[in-house]
């Protein structure tokens, strides 16, 4: 940024005309974080509805990238993984690089927005509210057990 401070009127006659400004390279760096909210399960069932039995999930092979715009929520089921809830109700398990004890997830976690808009295994990390990061080792699709 150029800043020019004018001289007093008596001194302006003594000043030479300024040389034209040389163009400069400007780099703008931006970091976008996407916050994924932890799903909370109500502790008391609704009086008019019968309680549903718990769902058992089975892991299956899946793609190793997830579109970030499809992330709707997350559930912490084990210290080495995070279950992602995607738009449309699909679920995927993100396997992490070992135990991530800081994933007590006070109110969820963040992922850095990537240039391709995808969250990928072996490349991306998740960051807990405490600031620690865990690398995503792989994804598994979750389907209800029969």
Question: Describe it for me?
Answer:
- It is a single chain.
- With 146 residues, this protein is mostly beta strands.
- The chain has a domain at 31-39 and 56-144.
- The chain is 3% helix and 37% strand.
- The protein has 1 helix and 10 strands; from the N terminus they run αββββββββββ.
- The chain has one helix at residues 9-12, and strands at 33-36, 57-60, 65-67, 71-78, 81-86, 91-96, 109-112, 118-120, 125-128, 133-144.
- Strands 1, 2, 4, 5, 6, 7, 9 and 10 form an 8-stranded antiparallel β-sheet that branches. It has a two-stranded antiparallel ribbon with strand order 3-8.
- Strand 9 and strand 10 form a beta hairpin.
- The longest helix is centred in the first third of the chain and has 4 residues, at 9-12.
- The model is unreliable at 1-9 (pLDDT under 50).
Which structural class matches the secondary elements?
mainly beta
What fraction of the residues are assigned to beta strands by DSSP?
35-45%
Reading the helices and strands in chain order gives HEEEEEEEEEE
- Helix tally equals 1
Name the overall outline: elongated
- Helical content band: under 10%
Tell me which oligomeric state these chains represent.
single chain
Major sheet details:
8 strands, antiparallel
CA distance, first residue to last residue:
65 Å
Low-confidence residue ranges = 1-9
Radius of gyration: 26 Å
> How many strand elements?
10
